[in-house]
What does this fold into?
Amino acid sequence: MFLYGVVNASPDSLNTDSIVSDEASARRRAEQLLADGADAFDVGGQGSTDAAHVVSWEEEWSRLEHVIPVLASFDVPVSVDTWRPETARRAFEAGATVLNAANGMQSDDMWEVAAHFEVPVVIPFLSGPNPREMQMVRTDPIGTMIAFFEARLVEAARFGKRDDCVIDPGTGFAPSNWPWEERYEYQKHVYSNMDELRVFGLPLYIALPWKETAQHDELLDIICRKGPEFGRAHYPAKVRRFEQAVTGA
It folds into this structure.
C-alpha cells in the first residue's frame, strides 16, 4: 500500500501527534513519517471534525503556505486536503502534487483547478456538500457510493480527468451524531466489500483507522487484507506491521 502520512496544519485536529504549526515542526513530522514507512504526505489546513472551527480560505491557506514548501522539499508526492479551490490552487503553486478533494469534487471549480495543474484527484464519497454537512447513509452504502462515483466520474471525463481519479469510500468522515458502534459496523461493511468499488477500474484510497482499540485494529486488518492501492495514515509504522502480518513477508 502506498501510504500518505498525515500532516495537520489545523490546530484543532483530533490527532495531536499530526499537528504542525511552523516550518520546523513540519520538517520534524515529515522526517518521522518517512522513517516510519510513509511514501508521501497528505496535508490540510481546515479540520473536518465537529471539534474544528471553520475558517476562511485565507486562514486555511495561511496555515499551509509555509508548510507545503517544506514537505515538497522531500521530493515525494504532497497531497493537499481541502474543499476550497482557492486553497488548492495556491497549494499546487507552492509544490503540492495531488488533490485530496474534501468536497467530493462536487463543483466545477475544483475540476478546473485539477485540470489546470494536471494533478491526480482523490475523490471521497460524501453524503453532503462537504464533510461538515454529511448525512447518515441508511441504505446500502456500497450501492450509494457507486451511484455517487458514477456521477463524479461523468464530470471527471468532461474535464479530461477520469483516468487521474482515485476512489475513496469516505470512511474518514462521519455525521456528527453517528455513535461509534454504528460507525464501526458501517466501516466494517464497507471495508469488507470494498472490492465492489473496483467496478470503475480505478485505484482505491482508504483513510486508515488510527485509534488504539480492538475494533479499530480489526478494521485495519480487514483493510490490509483487501489491499487498497493507497492509504492515509497517522501512524505508518503500525500500518506496515499489519501489512507484514497479513502477507507474512
